[in-house]
Write a structure and sequence with these properties.
Structural class: mainly alpha
Number of strands: 0
Largest sheet: none
Number of helices: 8
Low-confidence stretches: none
Distance between the termini: 28 Å
Order of helices and strands: HHHHHHHH
Shape: globular
Length: 191
């Protein structure tokens, strides 16, 4: 039963993401790029649930995926749904785990990056900005990595208007940890 294995992988990876976000990133108002970062920013400003915001922000992207890239839609929609639900179910961890800010930035990034990497390694991305970047790259021939970098930069610039400079500094550590860990988990995919 390959679907059972895939579901368990998605569940485990979503737990890592949920623990990373709620146990380590949110308590210090740290930020990430992409849809997760945008959802964290909405959380800090309007106190809306992170997972719910990820779903709402991703909805137009998934409508485009349904129309233009149906295979990608089928491969990623369950990752989006499960991870969004698990992120919100892990919200009570915000008051349970207490670590210094730099430890939280690092551990949160490692957990989120591992969750994303495990999903990508099992061909179940959570979609979001990566999917939108693929659409734009497909239509314009601009490198997908550059587009993701620009999306992340826009989220960080918006965050700089809301979160304190010290949180931005620690967010850089979080973003580096997410990127590094995702890279490690997906390294063998292209080699």
């Amino acid at each position: 039963m390959p679907w059972v294995k895939k579901f368990l992988v998605i569940l485990f990876a979503s737990m890592l993401i949920g623990i990373g976000i709620n146990g380590f990133i949110v308590p210090f108002h740290l930020i990430d790029g992409g849809v997760i970062g945008l959802s964290l920013l909405v959380k800090y400003i309007w106190h809306v649930k992170v997972g719910l915001t990820i779903l709402v922000v991703s909805l137009p992207i998934y409508v485009m995926a349904w129309i233009y890239f149906r295979k990608y839609f089928y491969n990623s929609v369950h990752g989006l749904l499960v991870s969004s639900i698990i992120i919100d179910l892990c919200a009570p961890l915000r008051t349970v785990i207490r670590a210094p800010e730099w430890v939280s930035a690092l551990v949160g990034g490692l957990l989120v990056g591992s969750g994303i990497g495990i999903m990508l390694r099992n061909k179940t991305p959570t979609g979001g900005a990566d999917l939108l970047a693929q659409f734009i790259s497909f239509k314009t021939s601009i490198n997908v990595g550059l587009i993701i970098f620009l999306f992340d930069g826009i989220v960080i610039l918006l965050a700089s208007l809301v979160i304190p400079p010290e949180a931005l500094m620690y967010s850089a550590l979080t973003i580096c940890a997410i990127g590094f860990t995702t890279y490690i988990w997906t390294y063998r995919m292209n080699h």
